[in-house]
Specification:
alpha/beta, Rossmann fold, six-stranded parallel beta sheet, 11 helices, 32% helix, globular, five-stranded mixed beta sheet
């Protein structure tokens, strides 16, 4: 077989740039071939005009550049609450969650504010009715209390988490007939055993700065200290609430995903505001963030993971899996600096 003649101009000439319509108006993207990029702004037919650089954000990703419309975009910050971040509950100050908090405060939130992007704080915030109807699969994820019979005396075990410690602790309790459980078997991933007694259980008093003691409240219930934002994030939220246009929105969720089922307060808000593109940040990357992102993808929203504004206590392989699928299937992956640069370029074009 003869190889193609590399000197043939018909073979070597560049293909003309083309734009491809993906989807059906009004829910569609455009793909440009040269350079390769996706336009997520949903321009109107029949012209499908290129978005103005003064009104759109060109965002670099780990795969293909994309173009966003700030007016149709929201930054969704998930579960950045005291329960998951506070050092007073044993969370490391230099842990992944608190590093993500720093990225949000230093870069992602200021960039979103400058661009006029809606900010949504999507957080656990349970009611007694929701606890009553919570399925066992969700309850297990946050631990539960157990009691075993030992030598005729009922003894309560400390909080049991969802990582296999429950069975090991129970077996040892039976074997030792009331023996003291080892400290290392009562904690998992550095999580204090006393706060893993199940959703809605009482955490009790917590000593914070200057020796002050606060009532941490019931686990992830609305209006409690443990379900509140840490001080710096709370200040950012309150600043956003005072905005005349697009004030920050606080939305409660009652599952790991904030967009599960037929409808949630979050999906209703997004539809009401005409938001099509979601930038995801928060904790944990492979749990509540990934769960919300996958449901958003399934329901038709554009999904972009801001990888350094997310954190998890899980192994690196779990985070890498979410980032891989976010980039290759569910949407795109960027970082805080990429968002900052894209917003800066848009503002400089004005």
């Amino acid at each position: 077989m003869t190889a193609p003649d590399s000197s043939n101009p018909d073979i070597n000439r560049d293909s003309p740039p083309r734009r491809s319509l993906i989807g059906t108006y009004p829910n569609h993207w455009l793909h440009s071939s040269s350079p390769s990029s996706f336009d997520l702004t949903r321009p109107a037919p029949p012209e499908y005009a290129l978005p103005s650089p003064k009104e759109s954000i060109s965002l670099s990703t780990t795969t293909t550049p994309i173009v966003l419309s700030p007016s149709k975009t929201a930054l969704v910050i998930i579960d950045m609450q005291n329960f998951f971040l506070s050092t007073y509950l044993g969370r490391p100050a230099d842990g992944a969650g608190n590093k993500a908090k720093g990225r949000l405060l230093d870069t992602s939130i200021p960039a979103a504010r400058k661009a006029g992007i809606q900010i949504i704080w999507l957080n656990w915030g349970l009611t007694d009715e929701e606890i009553e109807h919570m399925p066992p699969s969700t309850r297990r994820a946050f631990g539960f209390e157990a009691a075993l019979e030992g030598e005729g005396t009922k003894k309560s075990l400390p909080a049991i988490d969802a990582h296999g410690v429950n069975q090991a602790a129970a077996e040892q309790f039976v074997q030792e007939k009331g023996g003291v459980l080892k400290e290392k078997e009562l904690t998992e991933n550095g999580k204090p055993k006393r706060i893993y007694k199940g959703l809605g259980s009482d955490i009790g008093p917590v000593k914070i700065e200057d020796g002050k003691v606060v009532d941490a409240g019931r686990l992830l219930m609305r209006g409690t200290w443990n379900a509140a934002l840490p001080p710096a994030l709370d200040a950012a939220y309150k600043e956003g609430q005072s905005l005349e246009e697009k004030p920050d929105a606080w939305i409660h969720k009652n599952r790991m995903s904030g967009l599960w089922g037929a409808a949630t307060p979050c999906t209703e808000y997004l539809e009401q505001e005409g938001i099509k593109t979601l930038l995801f940040a928060g904790v944990n990357t492979d749990q509540c963030v990934a769960g919300s992102l996958q449901d958003a993808f399934t329901k038709g929203w554009d999904c972009i993971l801001i990888k350094d504004a997310c954190g998890t206590t899980s192994p690196d392989s779990a985070r890498e899996c979410v980032e891989f699928n976010s980039a290759r299937t569910w949407g795109f992956v960027t970082d805080s600096i990429g968002l900052e640069k894209g917003v800066k370029a848009m503002l400089e074009a004005r």
